[in-house]
Design a protein that fits this description.
Length: 214
């Protein structure tokens, strides 16, 4: 049986090394390249035939190809037969559902990488999708209703603060622009995050951008 060519991408060298060792243990796969950002990833894909990409969802690189959903959309559009496994620390059901809708082969929570990668690779070989037992998304229709319901609970001020924050302004910049204290703006932002059920700035930004809220 021909070994499947794999390219791995993560901006943390230690994660890359661990991923390399875990995949190379499986004789059915060959790691044909490694990248620390989306530019390097796409360059590797342009040079050779690749069966599977295992990529981090969030890579802090100013790139034409972006990261997160933008990168996944690019890969699905330009390499439609290639399978994609996404590594992430994001737990938002809306983001996970969006990835599922884009047609990724699976999503692995980074903290469970060592336990889940073997199961995910087995699914890939069998032509199946892998779904982490910890992050089973709701249906898209349920998510749409959930999204509207959650944003409907925001006050006008909370909605405006989130819009400014997602546009790139810091809490202190928003405070100056709104003529409010940093403590007040920070409290309103935290209250909005609680209503949306997100626990980090990364989840918040990804949540809003992927849902085209603003």
């Amino acid at each position: 049986m021909r070994k499947l060519n794999v390219v791995i991408a993560d901006d943390h060298p230690i994660v890359l090394l661990g991923l390399l060792e875990l995949i190379e243990r499986d004789g059915r796969f060959h790691v044909a390249g490694q990248a620390t950002g989306s530019d390097g990833l796409v360059q590797l894909l342009e040079q050779q035939a690749v069966d599977l990409v295992v990529t981090d969802f969030s890579m802090p690189e100013d790139s034409l190809y972006g990261d997160g959903l933008k990168l996944v959309k690019y890969l699905r559009r330009h390499y439609p037969t290639m399978r994609i496994l996404v590594l992430t620390m994001i737990s938002s059901p809306l983001i996970l559902t969006h990835l599922q809708e884009l047609g990724v082969a699976g999503v692995i929570q980074k903290r469970h990488l060592h336990n889940e990668i073997e199961v995910a690779l087995n699914a890939i070989v069998r032509g199946l999708e892998y779904q982490s037992c910890e992050s089973i998304p709701e249906s898209p229709s349920e998510n749409l209703l959930t999204l509207k319901a959650r944003f409907a609970t925001l006050s006008p001020k909370e909605h405006e603060i989130l819009r400014l924050f997602v546009s790139g302004q810091s809490v202190s910049e928003i405070a100056r622009g709104q003529n409010r204290s940093i403590k007040t703006i920070s409290g309103q932002k935290i209250a909005a995050m609680r209503k949306l059920e997100v626990t980090s700035d990364q989840d918040l930004i990804t949540y809003c951008l992927s849902s085209n809220v603003f």
